[in-house]
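$ ./design --mode recover --in tokens.txt
reading tokens...
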């Protein structure tokens, strides 16, 4: 994206990793299972954790006035994670193509793979995006 500014002066390279720790709360539980007394991580919450981790990471690298928005995701929810589970979300930057950032994100409980997300984000001007939303 022409005009994108990074705090370091250049875009991060493929291989850059974003990492956050999460705890599965009741708000992350699958509603239809919660009704049956089964408190486990929902697939939308798995995506939320993955997306929020890489968004915050990129926001810390982008210059003021820019952010990223999610445009595509492929989710593989492989195993359950009960409420109270401590998860590590690891987002690996796979490619940078202009304003397009592609990630392979793993959600882990210890060494157990809970899920994977292949995710694409686009860099946008916060002001221009806010104006588009109003239309």
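writing sequence...
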């Amino acid at each position: 994206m022409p005009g994108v500014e990074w705090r370091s002066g250049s875009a991060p390279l493929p291989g850059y990793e974003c990492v956050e720790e999460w705890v599965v709360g009741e708000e992350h539980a699958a509603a239809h299972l919660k009704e049956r007394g089964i408190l486990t991580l929902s697939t939308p919450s798995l995506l939320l954790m993955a997306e929020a981790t890489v968004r915050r990471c990129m926001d810390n690298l982008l210059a003021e006035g820019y952010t990223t928005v999610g445009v595509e995701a492929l989710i593989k929810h492989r195993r359950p994670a009960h409420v109270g589970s401590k998860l590590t979300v690891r987002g690996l930057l796979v490619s940078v193509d202009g304003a397009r950032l592609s990630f392979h994100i793993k959600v882990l409980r210890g060494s157990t793979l809970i899920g994977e997300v292949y995710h694409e984000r686009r860099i946008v001007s916060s002001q221009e995006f806010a104006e588009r939303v109003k239309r």
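exit 0
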